[in-house]
Amino acid sequence: MLNMRSAVGISVIVVLMSFFIVGSCNDGGNAPLGPPFQNPVQISSVNGVLEITYNAAVSPAEVDGKEFMSAQYNGMLAPPTLRVNPGDTLRLNLNNFLEMMTNVHYHGMNVSPLSPGDDVFIMITPNSGFEYEVEIPEDHPQGMFYYHAHLFGITEFQIMSGLSGGLIVGDILAPFPQLDGITEQIMYLKDFQLMDGEIPPEGMIDPSAPTNFTVNGQTNPTITMRPGETQFWQIGNIGADLYYDLVLEGHEFYQIERDGNRRNQTVVRESILMPTSSRVGVLVQTNEPGRYKLRAKKFNTGPQGDQYGGATLLTVHVIGEPVADPIELPIPMNQFPPVENLCEQEVAVERDIVFSETADGNTFFINGKEFDPERVDTEVKIGDFEKWTVTNTSGELHVFHIHLTDFVVCSVNGVDQPFVGKQDTVNVPYQGQDPDFEGPGEVVIVIDFTNPIIEGKAVYHCHIGEHEDNGMMAVFEACEEPPCPDFE
Ligand SMILES: [Cu+2]
């Protein structure tokens, strides 16, 4: 939480207004349904190549009937979802027509950090461009990823403005023939705050302030399903700061994917906590006719953090003839390809990574240091598995994320976690959150540094935009034979 000054008065007024609006609409099942749900525009690779040009420019936008100007790719608040396959080449020509620098990160991708690939140290100055070329390995994990601006100091503002969009690799459903032909929905979640009719400038975005929740840029759209119908939803949290604690009224989620990684089994969940930048793939099967809201529950990130109210993201309208032969869920475990449990690997190195912040919540640290792009904080040897104990001494949640690779969560606050698959983001509890656990919040992970494609420099950081922009990021360098060239 940053200390907010002049924004506080405005927030109070908007909170009161939204209270009245919510109150007046809450009239049960007969309220008019929102517009039909729309998947984002999708662009697929052809003959192994996806080439696209994005112009980043300030363009008109509309959310929930409110018009504003913001930084967008090609004038689209929900830019295209790019669909590629393992082995493909993604060429993204980014022209910067903004009055500030920008760049792009390919979140979750197991690709090279060397230019012109997923190099987050690139800074594209105004009125210039950069031609990214991302080679996607043949053995790349399949599932939901995304791309977003990643320029230190202004990432939060650029993402909230509109500079994030979808990226999907391959076909995560391939091992499950019983799902052939089911409807797949892509849901990229993002909130837009407006202050005096504009996205607030960097430093003035307040995660606790009222905001406009969207799915692919839409406000509370409607998905119509038949009773007993099964759909596959891939949901990505591509907003700047917020957690989404997702529930679907009257339904369970059959989760089979996390962060672009297939799980090793179906995990049945009543709710799913999605930190910013996380993605999940879930099967949803309807039952009785009716209207059911997909909601983000109200959320509190801790005594030093942020509190935000719940929101309806979309509505499922179950109506019509029941499906004759509903798909049997959960999917049997023996249909899932095996996943390597990294927590059982022999680790070469163990490290402590400490997330902390100042008492005023304005400056954020990893191992006591603010981010310096010129400094290499951590050197890793390609071929190693490493065990990192990520601790949080602050009074608010943080979201650990590392570029280029994935990890397995072995324990949280000392409690061993069931092994269900890999991920690239994890929520780190705040100190004192669990009264039974002494000391800082703690997550133990084992990270896979075995893929030679990661050679070079990249970053690990808290993915809450406000925190990474104010220092909570560090550089790692991977090489075959340490000492690596830039490590001192
Ligand atoms: Cu954080």
Radius of gyration computed on alpha carbons: 22 Å
Which small molecules are bound? copper (II) ion
Q: Indicate the low-confidence ranges by residue numbers.
A: 4-28
Give the number of domains: 3
What does this structure look like?
This protein has 488 residues and is mainly beta. The chain is 6% helix and 41% strand. The longest helix has 19 residues, at 7-25. Residues 4-28 have low confidence and may be disordered. The structure holds copper (II) ion.
Short overview:
The protein is mainly β. The protein has helices spanning 7-25, 155-161, 465-469, and strands at residues 42-44, 49-63, 66-73, 81-84, 89-96, 105-107, 128-135, 143-148, 164-169, 183-192, 212-215, 222-225, 230-237, 244-248, 253-258, 261-269, 271-274, 279-285, 290-296, 299-300, 307-308, 311-318, 349-357, 364-366, 378-381, 384-392, 398-402, 407-412, 415-416, 425-428, 441-449, 456-462, 473-479. It starts with 6 loop residues before the first helix and ends in a 9-residue tail after the last strand.
List keywords for this structure.
six-stranded mixed beta sheet; 488 residues; binds copper (II) ion; 3 domains; Immunoglobulin-like; mainly beta; globular; 3 helices
